[in-house]
Specification:
about 475 residues; alpha/beta; Alkaline Phosphatase, subunit A; seven-stranded mixed sheet; four-stranded antiparallel sheet; 16 helices
C-alpha cells in the first residue's frame, strides 16, 4: 500500500459513549457510517496505551509503549534519537503535517519534531498559526462553532480551525509529495466539555438542568477538579447527568467536524486511509473519580478505533488491538523501517494482551494535593508509583510498586486474585516478560521541559494543575 494517511485523534473519547458501542445517544453518526463502509472497520476492543495525552500521543507517534519512550512516565520528552512516525514515513517520501491544540501533543513532548509542517493552535497562537481567511470564516460562524461572543476562551471550540488548517496542509504537502501523512489532535472533547451554542441543547431534553446551567456545571468541575476527585466537593445526580450531556454534545460536534474533513479530503483523493481514535477515555464517577488522573479503569483506556481506506488493517478480526498495532501495519504497508516499532503487524498476528500504563510521579503529586482538599480521601486502594495493567478479554491485572490486583471484567472493584490464582500467576508472568522486552526504557536519558507562559495558561484552562 502506498496512499495518503490521515490520523485523527479525539481527546478523552471513551468507546462506550460513541454510537459504535450501541450507546443510547447517537453521538457519533459519522463514525458509525464510516465504520460501515466496505473498506472500513471499527475495532471495538481497542485500548489506549496511557491514561492521559502525553504518554498516549507519544505512543502513537513513536509506535512504542510508554515505559519504553518514557514521556509521561519518568520523562517529559521522548528520547532525542527515537524515530517518530513522521521521521519514518518521511524517509519513504511522504510529506508530513500535524495540527495540535494541546501542548502535550507537541513541543512539550518532542512530538513536533519530524513533521514538515507543524501547527500549534491555542488562543495565543491563532493569529500566527491560522490563515487569516479561516479566522474570518470562524468569526462569521462564531455561534455555530463556539459559545458565541465571549472572552471566555473555554467556550470557544477549535475543531473548525483544525479542519481548515489541515485542508491547507493537505494541499501544500500534496504539491510536493506523492503521499501525505497528517496527524490532527482534536481537543474539544476534553473537559470542561463546553459544546458550541449550536450543540448546547442537543442532549439536555431529559436533563433536569437547563443547557446554560449544565455548561456551568462542566466549567465548575474543571475549575475545581481536585476537590471533586478527592471528594471534598460532590456532584448531585442531576449535575452528573448534566455533565455527561455536555460531554456527549462535544462528542457529537467533533464527530460532525471529522465528517466534514473526511468528505473534503476524499474529494481531493478518494484513496486516503483514515484512522480515527481516542487518545484515552474519561471517568464520570467510576470508583468516585472524574477526568483521567489516577487509574487504568476501562473508562479511561477503552477507546474507539475506526480505520477506513485501502489497507489490510481493516481485515483484522482479533478481539484486542492497540493504536501502535495500526501504526506498525500501516508503516509496513508503506515500506517504512519498523525496527523501532513495538506493535504487532495486524496482517500476520493477533494481540492477546493489551498494556495500559500510568506514570507514578504525576499521580503522587495529585495525591498530595488531594490530601490538602480532603484529608479523609481514601488512597489505600490506589496504586503508588508506575502502574502497568495487562488486559485480556476477560481479566485485567494491575501491578505497581505498591501492590498487584486482578479484576474479572467488567467488575473493576473486586480483587479476585485469591479466587483465580492460575490467572493471577499467568498474567504476572506476562507482566514480567513485558518488562524484559518491550517495556524496557529505550534510553536512560530523562528530559524535562519548561513550558512557556501561554502554554501554561492554556493547560490551566483545561484543568491541568502545574
Amino acid at each position: 500500500m502506498t496512499a495518503n494517511v490521515v490520523w485523527l485523534t479525539l481527546e478523552s473519547l471513551r468507546f462506550d459513549h460513541t454510537s459504535l458501542s450501541g450507546y443510547g445517544r447517537d453521538t457519533t453518526p459519522f463514525l458509525h457510517s464510516l465504520a460501515a463502509e466496505s473498506e472500513a472497520a471499527s475495532f471495538d476492543g481497542c485500548f489506549s496505551h496511557g491514561i492521559w495525552t502525553r504518554p498516549a500521543s507519544a505512543s502513537i507517534l513513536t509506535g512504542t509503549y510508554p515505559s519504553h519512550h518514557q514521556a509521561g512516565v519518568s520523562s517529559d520528552v521522548i528520547p532525542e534519537d527515537l524515530p517518530t512516525i513522521p521521521d519514518l514515513l518521511g524517509e519513504q517520501g511522504f510529506g508530513t503535517g500535524c495540527v495540535s491544540t494541546v501542548a502535550y501533543m507537541g513541543h512539550a513532548t518532542g512530538l513536533d519534531g519530524g513533521f514538515d509542517s507543524f501547527r500549534y493552535l491555542i488562543s495565543d497562537t491563532l493569529i500566527e498559526e491560522v490563515h487569516l481567511v479561516d479566522l474570518v470564516k470562524y468569526a462569521f460562524a462564531i455561534r455555530r462553532h463556539s459559545g458565541g461572543l465571549t472572552t471566555d476562551t473555554t467556550k470557544h471550540s477549535t475543531s473548525f480551525l483544525i479542519n481548515e488548517t489541515v485542508k491547507r496542509q493537505f494541499d501544500e504537502l500534496s504539491q510536493n509529495s506523492d503521499d501525505v501523512f497528517i496527524y490532527a489532535h482534536y481537543n474539544d472533547t476534553h473537559h470542561p466539555y463546553t459544546p458550541p451554542l449550536s450543540f448546547l441543547d442537543k442532549f439536555t431534553a431529559d436533563v433536569a438542568l437547563s443547557p446554560p446551567e449544565a455548561r456551568a456545571v462542566a466549567i465548575q468541575l474543571t475549575e475545581n477538579l481536585n476537590e471533586y476527585v478527592s471528594g471534598a466537593r460532590e456532584l448531585t445526580k442531576d449535575e452528573i447527568e448534566a455533565l455527561i450531556a455536555m460531554y456527549d454534545a462535544t462528542i457529537a460536534y467533533v464527530d460532525q467536524a471529522v465528517g466534514d474533513l473526511v468528505k473534503w479530503i476524499r474529494a481531493q483523493d478518494d484513496d486516503t486511509v483514515f484512522v480515527v481514535t481516542g487518545d484515552h477515555g474519561e471517568l464520570f464517577g467510576e470508583r468516585g473519580l472524574y477526568a483521567h488522573k489516577l487509574v487504568t479503569h476501562d473508562a479511561v483506556c477503552h477507546v474507539p478505533m475506526v480505520v477506513a481506506g485501502p489497507t489490510a488493517v481493516t481485515d483484522y478480526d482479533g478481539d484486542l488491538v492497540q493504536p501502535i498495532d495500526v501504526v506498525r501495519t500501516l508503516l509496513a504497508e508503506a515500506g517504512a523501517d519498523q525496527s523501532t516499532l513495538q506493535g504487532i503487524d495486524l496482517r500476520d498476528d493477533r494481540r492477546e494482551h493489551c498494556f495500559v500504563q500510568r506514570g507514578g510521579d504525576r499521580v503522587n503529586r495529585h495525591l498530595q494535593w488531594f490530601e490538602e482538599y480532603a484529608p479523609s480521601f481514601d488512597q489505600s486502594w490506589l496504586h503508588r508509583g508506575d502502574l502497568t495493567a495487562v488486559r485480556t478479554t476477560d481479566y485485567k491485572y494491575e501491578r505497581s510498586a505498591s501492590h498487584s490486583v486482578l479484576y474479572e471484567l467488567p467488575d473493576e472493584e473486586t480483587d479476585v486474585a485469591v479466587d483465580h490464582p492460575d490467572v493471577d500467576d499467568r498474567l504476572d508472568d506476562v507482566w514480567e516478560e513485558f518488562f524484559e522486552t518491550h517495556g524496557r526504557p529505550y534510553s536512560d536519558q530523562r528530559r524535562r521541559t519548561e513550558l512557556d507562559e501561554s502554554t501554561r495558561r492554556s493547560l490551566k484552562q483545561m484543568g491541568y494543575f502545574l
